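Need tokens for this chain, all 233 residues.
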Amino acid sequence: MTADRPPLRVVVADDQALVRTGFKLILAADGIEVTAEAADGAEAVAAVRRTRPDVVLMDIRMPETDGIEATRRILGGDGPQETRVIVLTTYDLDHYVYAALTAGASGFLLKDVSPEHLVAALRLVRSGDALLAPTITRRLIERFAKHDEPQTIAPHRDLSVLTPRELEVLRLLATGLSNAELASRLFLSQTTVKSHVGRILSKLDLRDRVQAVVLAYETGLIAPEGGAPDPHG
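Here are the structure tokens for all 233 residues:
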């Protein structure tokens, strides 16, 4: 915690009480407030609306309302705009993880995450950044994206709102380049690249870079497995 920021506030959603207790003890030891616990997705949605946390640690596989549907409800139009979701899973390359990302999650953590990594991840996401490296997101998309099915993330978003430079930045971002690598490739400063990325997210109404990578694939701007990008992109 820094002097100019309030304590980080978290909801922990998992159907196993022991898991919830373990996470709660880890977070409390680092001065992070657990505002509520939830044993299923419906409880998680209610807890978020009641306590308006910064971040939700969301188990994907829960009874009744699962973590994917809960994430979709929390991050929907009537949910608290400041709340971010990190999904918890057992397997990193999992179609449930991909579904959670398309629902708006800012990243995922494996359930055996170390306490240090857990705390760092929560702080990173609270700051507005995405937890996943774009390269990991790309691997998920290449495995699970199906372009012959209806698009699952913002099919109405028109990439024509982007300038040619912003399209170029989005295309390169989707290949897994960091801001520093983008700056080097485009002969720009990192500050300028950060501004471009910010405008892309704003124009396309995306929460973070993970969502930008997903959208780049699902609109055909980038094709899975090294395929050619959409010539109209």
